[in-house]
Design a protein that fits this description.
The structure holds two protein chains of two kinds. Chain A is an alpha+beta fold. In chain A, 64% of the residues lie in helices and 8% in strands. Chain A contains 27 helices and eleven strands. In chain A, the strands form four sheets. In chain A, strands 9-10-8-11 form a four-stranded antiparallel sheet, sandwiched between helices. In chain A, strands 5-2-6 form a three-stranded antiparallel sheet, with helices on both faces. In chain A, strands 1-7 form a two-stranded parallel sheet. In chain A, helix 20 packs across helix 21. The radius of gyration of chain A is 32 Å and the shape is elongated. By secondary structure, chain B is of the alpha+beta class. Chain B has one domain: outer membrane lipoprotein receptor (LolB), chain A (Clam), CATH 2.50.20. In chain B, a hairpin with a 5-residue loop joins strand 10 and strand 11. The longest helix of chain B is centred in the N-terminal third of the chain and has 16 residues. The radius of gyration of chain B is 19 Å and the shape is globular. The termini of chain B are far apart. The chains are: A alpha+beta, B alpha+beta. Chains A and B meet through strand 4, helix 18 and helix 19 of A and strand 6 of B.
């Protein structure tokens, strides 16, 4: 079978290439059907309780995701000029498609509860019309400071910042809306600083910028890889093959993903970036072998047969282990990660198959004339790589004990580093610090009560439960407790409305700013709210019309999962220690809460998948080498690489976030590869030479060079990703670099040292 | 014959020759008549009212109150007294409006749980009445002189011939930018009203669900407001209506806010 395929590729190269092109064309034709989904909520199963509860909460209280616009002006935003600009900007924003006009929170849109003429109580717009005097502006500021429902939300306590919260029909339009809002603020904003922030915006914008990054970084990586291959092999025609294989694998995998109706999520958008190095690796081994042996065999077909024969087993196993690493992702509870794992695995199988067929086919099409000097013009045995490999060989030969000891220390240091890993994520921080979304996030959260909104939902079976003094006092205590956390910018509940009405009803008597002692008074105060021009819909954002559910808004200044978790834990601890009134349950909802939920699932899911693939790979190695000892040693490069990289992350304090988590399977899949090539071929050579020293000497030649070429190509090939504006892409680029360098070093230093040390028992 | 009339009317409308037929003068006169028939029926009136507020999701909230009305002047000053019975936690809350045809109304609320009478602002007539889909103005009436009216023609609605009148506020108004009323030619009561916002989208729709003759006066006894924009609706049932019972002006004072008039209000 294997022979048949290779022979066919050698004898009928045009047919092989033609078939591949046709299949590729079929998959490429699926691309226009692409469906993009950048909602991190979809990191959770659609029937995940957290998600369902969040959706139910939004529905029960008519809540929407929102974009926040921040205006910062020195020395104060409360001048007629600035406020009138806000007024006009809000008017225009209200006209935009997809904005929930009635729910906009802006100085010019919100109602204020206050004392009217003749001791009356009035609920009316805070800023009904454009204003003229500084006194009016200051009056508006004072009204906001006096209103716990508005304070911190729409204006900062220092008066320098003002915010507009814009509820939107769906998260998926936030990027479009932010562009339109920016056009409005640029035109009407004057000299003040204008910012646009919000979790939905970060999530949606990431989606659109992600594709720009893909369009830039994938071809850039291709170009660099091509350049490096040319430096190594000096023959354009032959290095086209790895490029073709990589491109085809990507197109097949993405095409099948789209064809099967899967959405392209943040995760799956990275499939091409993951597939490219993996598919290039095999081809480089083949070309490397071909390159180094062409002089000897002089004929294309014999050289190819020889190369593939040499490489078939290691290539099969390197591919299978990588497949195992990615397939293990299918065990995670996170749907996009599963899709990602499955389709990367598919792509790897494709790449493996195409490497075995396209490489020979393309080589056969190249004329003998072109190949005449192939492998001669570069003096490989005395080149830079060879020299480096010789140094490694000398080191491993003479100082093997020192090397083993050094790696022992590395493992200990790494173990410490692993314990320092901090699990944290925040979609806003997927953008670089210099990105407008990050700048907006920093500026607005420094001044205002926060751009992140969590909800704490109180539920009871009984209607009317939410207007009892017990419940409201309990909510108030919970609010006090939550406010102790500096992440919490403000908490707003039906409590604040009751207190505020009571305060205004008793002629602004601060001692009356409390929860009444009986239910009737609470009900009657809320009735006054509905009687005096208060929009019932405003009230029903905090309590259901039946008063069986209440919603406490917990506004956060920081969307880091760590910070959000701390607030959630504080709340949960309070609820545990101070039970709510009988029959009432208290549960969290909100986008930041959902994010911590899927992060938790991700972390535990990734641990399981990493552990399971580790075990699977170990057994594959034992099977491949028919030896426990070899199996054990072959796991060392991968173990040390994973440990070293994640320890490094622990030491530098980079948070363990979604991309870092997913990269563990890539690390595993890639860092075993060199060990397989090394051990498998060392043993093949030894079978031939029957002499350890001779075999040891030889492994640093062809195989050593092939491995070091791979290290260079992949490590450098993905460096352009470091210049991405999106942090996950930078992370991926850095990981490729680290995986290659570390696993390359371990394979070419530690493995030879170990074989040197245990040569007697390993080569009986 | 009816059919022919309709066709002719439709043709006239299409040709846009309706202006001659329906002068603004006529439309104003019709709206005034309708306003008086609807909001000034009799010299006074007492009624039990059940208001059912139905949310978009079909959940109901019920409010029951007794409403007493006195007309001081036909088409002019009016007084309303409302005594809430349900929900039970707001029972004994009373509410009073002195409506004037010029300037702002005055409103007071009595809060029994703290024994306090409080004036409440009446600046925004378009705000919701006790959380329902009816605004204050939908309950007590928007004076016909505040809008420009145009008679658009006649139609048949539920077997009745109606005037179709379009009203546009003279001054910018939050309640609507355009209103179309379908007024029964016979009783002069509005059978349907459509409220459009500034984008000319239908946002609210009033429907006279049930019309009965009480004390010789044709009265809409079940009214419904459909909130097209937000979903949901409010149904108001008027029960035990009596007209011209001799309601005294003194009832509409702070004293009676605290101590409801026994004559009309049985606890």
């Amino acid at each position: 079978m294997r022979k048949a395929i290779i022979e066919f590729s050698i004898k009928k190269p045009m047919i092989v290439i033609g078939l591949a092109v046709i299949i590729t064309a079929f998959f490429a034709m699926q691309f226009p059907k692409i469906k993009i989904d950048t909602d991190p909520q979809n990191m959770l199963e659609s029937d995940e309780p957290t998600r369902l509860f969040h959706a139910a909460t939004k529905d029960n209280f008519n809540l929407y995701d929102f974009i926040a616009v921040g205006i910062i002006a020195e020395p104060t935003a409360f001048t007629p000029d600035e406020l009138n600009r806000v007024y006009r900007i809000t008017e225009e924003i209200a006209e935009l498609e997809g904005v929930i006009v009635d729910d906009i929170m802006s100085i010019s849109m919100v109602d204020d509860i206050k004392q009217g003429p003749g001791g009356s109580i009035v609920i009316e717009p805070l800023m009904e019309d454009e204003i003229e005097t500084d006194e009016e502006a200051q009056h508006i500021f004072q009204r906001i400071m006096n209103n716990p429902i508005l304070r911190g939300k729409i204006a900062s306590d220092d008066g320098k910042a003002v915010a507009i919260f814009i509820p939107i029909e769906s998260k998926t339009i936030s990027h479009r809306l932010s562009t339109e809002i920016k056009e409005i603020t640029d035109r009407l904003g004057g000299n003040a600083e204008y910012h646009i922030a919000g979790l939905p915006l970060a999530e949606d914008s990431f989606g659109s910028e992600m594709f720009v990054q893909m369009a830039v970084s994938a071809p850039a990586a291709m170009a660099v890889i091509f350049l490096l291959l040319f430096l190594f092999f000096r023959q354009v025609k032959i290095i086209i093959a790895p490029m073709v294989v990589a491109m085809m694998s990507v197109i097949w995998a993405m095409g099948l993903l789209i064809y099967t109706g899967n959405t392209v999520h943040i995760m799956s958008s990275m499939i091409p970036i993951f597939l490219m190095p993996i598919s290039v690796l095999n081809s480089i081994h083949i070309i490397s072998e071909f390159h180094d042996n062409f002089k000897k065999y002089k004929h294309k077909d014999t050289t190819i047969r020889h190369s593939i024969n040499e490489l078939f087993v290691p290539m099969l196993f390197t591919s299978m282990t990588t497949v195992a690493g990615f397939l293990s992702l299918a065990l995670t509870p996170i749907p996009p990660v599963r899709v990602f794992g499955i389709f990367v695995a598919f792509g790897i199988v494709v790449a493996w198959f195409l490497s075995l067929t396209i490489n020979p086919a393309i080589a056969m099409l190249i004329s003998d004339k072109t190949l005449r000097n192939f492998g001669k013009d570069t003096n490989e045995e005395h080149g830079m790589l060879a020299k480096l490999m010789h140094k490694f060989r000398d080191l491993a030969h003479k100082r093997y004990k020192a090397i083993i000891a050094t790696f022992g220390v590395v493992v200990i240091v790494a173990a410490v580093g692993l314990s320092l890993i901090v699990v944290n994520d925040n979609p806003v921080k997927w953008f670089k610090k210099s990105h407008p979304i990050r700048i907006a996030d920093n500026a607005m959260n420094a001044h205002l009560a926060g751009t992140y909104m969590n909800y704490l939902v109180f539920e009871s079976e009984d209607e009317g439960s939410m207007k009892t003094p017990e419940l409201l006092n309990y909510m108030l205590r919970l609010q006090d407790e939550l406010s102790k956390d500096k992440t919490v910018g403000s908490t707003t509940g039906v409590t604040d409305i009751v207190k505020k009405i009571r305060y205004e009803l008793f002629a602004a008597d601060s001692s009356k700013m409390t929860i009444p002692k009986n239910s009737d008074e609470i009900a009657q105060l809320l009735f006054i709210f509905e009687m005096s021009g208060g929009d019932p819909d405003d009230l029903f954002k905090f309590v259901t019309p039946e008063y069986d559910k209440a919603n406490l808004w917990v506004q956060l200044r920081n969307g880091d999962n760590m910070a959000v978790s701390a607030v959630v834990d504080r709340g949960n601890k309070f609820i545990e220690e101070n039970l709510p009134p009988a029959g009432v349950t208290v549960k969290w909802a909100g986008l930041p809460y959902i994010n911590i939920e899927w992060q938790n699932q991700m972390v535990s899911g990734m641990q399981k998948s990493l552990a399971s693939s580790f075990v699977v790979v170990f057994f594959m190695m034992v099977f491949l080498f028919r030896s426990f000892k070899w199996g054990f040693f072959s796991m060392l490069p991968l173990t040390i690489t994973v440990m070293a990289i994640y320890a490094f992350i622990g030491y530098i304090g980079k948070p363990y976030d979604m991309p870092v988590a997913v990269l563990s399977s890539l690390t595993l899949g890639l860092s075993i590869d060199f060990a397989i090539h090394f051990i498998q071929r060392l043993r093949v050579i030894h079978k031939r030479t029957k002499n350890f020293d001779e075999s040891f000497h030889e492994i640093f030649e062809g195989t050593g060079r092939a491995i070091s070429r791979n290290v260079m190509v992949i490590a450098i090939g993905f460096l352009p990703m470091l210049f991405s504006t999106l942090v996950p892409y930078i992370t991926v680029g850095a990981f490729f670099f680290a995986i290659m360098i570390v696993s390359g070093l371990v394979t070419m230093l530690l493995l030879p040292s170990i074989t040197q040390m245990f040569k007697k028992s390993l080569f009986k | 014959m009816k059919q022919t009339m309709k066709t002719v009317l439709a043709l006239l409308l299409i040709l846009g020759i309706s202006s001659g037929y329906a002068s603004a003068q006529d439309a104003n006169e019709l709206m005034k008549k309708s306003h008086l028939a609807y909001f000034y029926a009799g010299d006074d009136g007492v009624s039990d009212v059940t208001m059912t507020i139905v949310s978009k999701k079909g959940k109901e909230r019920v409010r029951e109150f007794i409403m007493i009305r006195l007309d001081n002047e036909e088409g002019g000053d009016q007084k309303y007294y409302t005594y809430f019975k349900k929900p039970s936690d707001v029972s004994r809350v009373t509410f009073m409006v002195h409506k004037t045809s010029v300037g702002n109304d005055q409103r007071w609320i009595y809060v029994p749980s703290i024994d306090l009478i409080k004036p409440i602002s009446a600046d925004d007539k378009n705000s919701s009445f006790v959380g329902s889909d009816f605004s204050y103005e939908d309950v007590s009436g928007r004076h016909w002189t505040e809008d420009n009216h145009t008679l658009k023609g006649e139609e048949t609605l539920d077997g009745k011939t109606v005037y179709v009148i379009e009203s546009i506020p003279k001054e910018k108004y939050k309640g609507f930018s355009r209103k179309v009323s379908y007024i029964d030619k016979e009783s002069m009561l509005p059978l349907k009203e459509e409220y459009y916002n500034k984008k000319d989208k239908l946002v609210k729709e009033f429907v006279a669900v049930k019309i009965e003759v009480v004390d010789g006066i044709t009265t809409i006894t079940t009214r419904r407001m459909n909130n097209i924009k937000k979903g949901g609706h409010t149904i108001v049932d008027f029960n035990k209506i009596s007209y011209n019972v001799g309601v005294k002006d003194e009832i509409f004072t702070e004293r009676y806010l605290k101590n409801p008039p026994r004559k009309y209000i049985k606890k």
